[in-house]
Amino acid sequence: MIRKTLVTAAALAAVAAPAAANEFAPALRALAEETLRPIAQDPAVVAAIQARNGDLVTDQAEIDRLDKEWRAQVGSADAPLVAAVSGTPAAQTLAAARDASAGLLTEIFAMDAAGLNVAVSDPTSDYWQGDEAKWQETYKAGPEAVHVSEVELDESTQTYQAQVSLPVVDPNSGDAIGAVTFGVNVEMLP
């Protein structure tokens, strides 16, 4: 069960300070271990990443083309690439976890070994995350890694949020096979 408390106005005002992420980092890291890591290790998420990694896109020109295609499709009625990662069992698992958090989690998305979206609770602005710290400092850092971003005002949700990212680990080998990023509303941190 996720316990919620409201963050004080003074704490939110600190978000504008350069060390703001540090203020919330201990609580975000505790949340990662207690609540988020089990979601990242859900069998549907692991299976989706394993399947994608079996047919991994590694050519940078193709990754760039897919990312451009994704960006053009977000918000469009004709969005087959977006639908391919938002209508899967893994995406349903992520959306259910977001919904069950009662506002604590604003978005969840899983990435493969190249940093491409595999499953999303909500469409992201871009398809390729492989050039960002959320993927580089988790998937590439090993199975125990945790990446906590700075806290920012998320325009789409109008909440102060941080992104917490974790590797997805193959249960048989113990190796990182992908990553999951969680948007966390810091105003509702336990």
Characterization of this structure:
39% of the residues lie in helices and 19% in strands. With 190 residues, the chain is of the alpha+beta class. Strands 1, 2, 3, 4, 5 and 6 form a 6-stranded antiparallel β-sheet that branches. The longest helix is centred in the N-terminal third of the chain and has 21 residues, at 20-40. It is globular.
Write a compact overview of the structure shown:
The chain is an alpha+beta fold and 190 residues long. Helices cover 39% and strands 19% of the residues.
What is the mean pLDDT?
Answer: 90
Strand content: 15-25%
| Count of discrete alpha- or pi-helical segments spanning 4 or more residues | 7
- Number of DSSP E strands: 6
Question: In angstroms, what is the radius of gyration?
Answer: 16 Å
Shape: globular
Low-confidence stretches: 1-21
The separation of the N and C termini measures 10 Å
H/E element order? HHHHHHEEHEEEE
Secondary structure blueprint with pairings:
Elements: H1 9-13, H2 20-40, H3 43-53, H4 60-73, H5 80-86, H6 89-100, E1 105-111, E2 117-120, H7 133-136, E3 147-148, E4 152-154, E5 159-169, E6 176-185
Antiparallel strand pairs: 1-2, 1-6, 3-5, 4-5, 5-6
